[in-house]
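Thread title: Can someone regenerate the structure for this chain?

I was given the following input by a collaborator and told the matching structure tokens would be attached. They weren't. Posting the sequence so someone can regenerate them.
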Amino acid sequence: MTVKVAIAQMNSTVGDLAGNSAKIFALCRRAHEAGADIVLTPELSLVGYPPEDLLLRSAFYAKTQETFAALARDLAQFKDLHVVVGLPLMEEGGARRYNAASVLLNGEVLGSYRKHDLPNTTVFDEKRYFSSSDAALVFAVKGVRFGLNICEDTWYEHAPIRAKEAGAQVLLVPNGSPYHMNKQHLRYEVMRQNVCAHGMALVYANLVGGQDELIFDGDSFVMDAAGTICAQLKHFEEDFQVVEFEGARPLPAPLPAPLSDEAQVYRALVLGVRDYIGKNGFPSVLIGMSGGVDSALTLAIAVDALGADKVRAVMMPSPYTADISCIDSRDMVERLGVRYDEMAINPIFDAFRAALAEDFAGLAEDATEENLQARIRGTILMALSNKHGSIVLTTGNKSEMAVGYCTLYGDMAGGFAVIKDIAKTLVYRLCAYRNGVADVIPQRILTRGPSAELRPDQLDQDSLPPYEVLDAIMRMYMEENRPIADIIAAGYPPADVARVTRLIKINEYKRRQSPVGIRVTHRGFGRDWRYPITSKFYE
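Best answer:
Regenerated them for you:
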């Protein structure tokens, strides 16, 4: 006799209790029709993850319990189907709150597991919201004993060992594990070390979808007690799969093809744009085109995420914009089939300079005039956004955000920063990947030297080290937290190291005012980067 476990890799929306409940019900109906005995949904599947400070409001728990009770009644029709639902629980008059997973059976709560290990690093703040519990939960289905752990519990030994001691043969693991590059390989190794090493198979059900800056990649999987992958669900898509167990041993199923690094990141960005725009109800997006590689990549991602009919590109040439920038932008929008407009900013730029001429008399032109152009463009885009309801997608990359090579209220103006966590060198790799799928980015955009085109014959490298050097220093200092001495010892010029790290420090005020953007590395300039703006410390 086999036990069938259905993995519900679902895209929950934070706070959409009715919508999430309806998804869980539909997946349970599907599981019941497939003869499943257990349905495993992801972490906090009923309320979405992470709910952040919604977890501090009593009304949130009241509505959650109301929705959960109704779901339990509705699921009673699926006789003998065990359904694991993730939800927050408030107990002891509100004094204690838990990240929990409850097992429903025939309309009743069979038991509730409360998370033990609460992550409080990188993007996580669970100790702000939840209490920890040491109690195991194990239940039997057709003679096989299933235990529950939640996400971070399996990144340490304690909770899996507690489940094993309570009799678990298979560990069910609801997850809200956000994506960063090559995260899946890390998950495999940690599960082998902390679960399989104690003689248990596991079912790992992960969220999929975008939640503000976080991306959940799905990639749910089943691993036997020897650490062999027996099943894996799709990357970056909702998915559903029933896996059979003979006793405590999962039977192998076909596995999806692995993705390259570039394919992973590109799909994460597409998913992030689609969910941020869709879940927040924006009808369309606006992108300021420059004829450069960053806006080209952002445009391609937007079209792939939303469709050409929901994307509008606007080119705003200045006196310093090269003709080929307009030519290449026209070429690309024609390939993608999006609406395209050109609005020259020369008259507005002249009007600004005339208005400021008396105050600026006797002073040489400098970054002030460059920033004026960027701010005129930002004003135009935001005016179009206000008038038509479209959200502006900014096009700045991580390298620029790191060193402040961007203009407040100019190219930083917008609602969502698509490539905020993408280093310039990775931008080029992603463009090459997208053109390998279909040739949408004109080749000249990829081969000409990058330039902001805010003064005659300007190139980025006039103001910055080569991007290969800048990105390496940024990665070691910002992402890997390496000492400056180590970066110099790795062979990077001391002057470049000092310059880049100083720029990272002094531009914190800009980053605090930048739009939220998609996180794809293990440390982005967002919720896992918390440095003071006012600081006299220099390493």
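The chain has a mean pLDDT of 95.
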